[in-house]
Amino acid sequence: MKTITQKLKEGQILVSDGAWGTFLQKMGLQPGECPEQWNLTHRGNVEKIAQSYIDAGADMIETNSFGGNSFKLSYFGLEHQAFEINKTAAEISRKAAGPDRNVLGSIGPSGKMIMMGDVTFEALYESFKIQAMALAAGGADALIIETMSDIEEAKAAVAACKDNTNCEVICTFTFEKSGEKDFFTIMGVSPAEMAHEMAAAGAVIIGANCGNGMENMIGITAEIRKTNPTIPILIHANAGIPVYKDGETCFLESPEQMAGYVEQIIAAGAGIIGGCCGTTPEHIRQIAAKVKALKK
What we know:
alpha/beta, eight-stranded parallel beta sheet, 13 helices, TIM Barrel
């Protein structure tokens, strides 16, 4: 199977998957329950999520391993099962993806901060190393380090993935709007700074996920592309800005609305388009249909 970067070099626009966390909640994941443990205890449900995105037309799917690092798993007393949990996550998505679609091993932030003295760079590296090796062992083609806000933590994750696997390494940050046009992470990192630092660290695909709907992602994508004219860009947008309604967080952007921004996102420089919080298989189906129509 071709790598993701090979497909992009051929000029393909690729469609990724949508939300996992909100999907798991709809399936019965309870507050305070470990989502990643479902790989072991509710494997069938996790497989259904992966398969639903493949059926919707995704060219690649992630794994249910976002919080699968030892620091996050320690909250549930599961840190010693990190390898098994992550390997199983990749096996599940690999089964759904089949031989023609790529699997992205999801690696989220640790919840610790180097600058606050919570953790060292070396400790982060070791935790991400276990997760990366397990995802690769389970069949991941690429590793997506996502929802990052801190450059040093992201560097630790990229290094752990590059040093210990043969997987392509993707890195995306989460940005919030500041003023009319500017975007920064909660740690003050701009899309331009992220693009420079992560490309230098060795990520072969960079981008943004979460925090914004597709409309705001256009400006973020344009800033990344201006900073680096050639590196592939991945965008995983929320189904709009979250709204608190009737006691719960809601994402109100419809599949048609999200798909309506696809042409602009591509024009800004994105080569991979998918969804984050609140997006469903129908969102991905509409995005895939729009990409297919644009190809024609």
